[in-house]
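Final report, closing paragraph on structural work. Over the funding period we assembled a curated collection of sequence-structure pairs, and we close with a single example.
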Amino acid sequence: MIALALLLAFVAPQDAQRRPPTFTVTAADGSKQTFLGFVAFGTEEVLGKLDAAAKAKNLATARADEGGKLELMVFFDSKTDKKTATALYAQASSGAFGALQTGMLLVPQGAVRPN
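Its predicted structure, as stored:
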């Protein structure tokens, strides 16, 4: 629930500096989806490594603690290229930073419009 609230705040019109990404990915059902970012769950140490890597690529991040379950959200924007986005997600999902559970933040292609 926190991820959704932060996601909505991220793509809100009042944030003139950050606009949603313009690239899409193909979901398992074949539909085109805008890849807004991803969420990762893990230890403070591992999330810290991912957070540093994301910030080194000028990506926005947000942290949450869901009843002891630590969460890091990484958000892409209009300045993020698809290669950077997919590479960081692949690194996080493959264990490059340590043990993480990850999930993509996807919305239907037409659901996100530039401000």
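Residues 44-56 form the longest helix (13 residues). Residues 1-6 have pLDDT under 50 and may be disordered. We thank the funder for supporting this effort.
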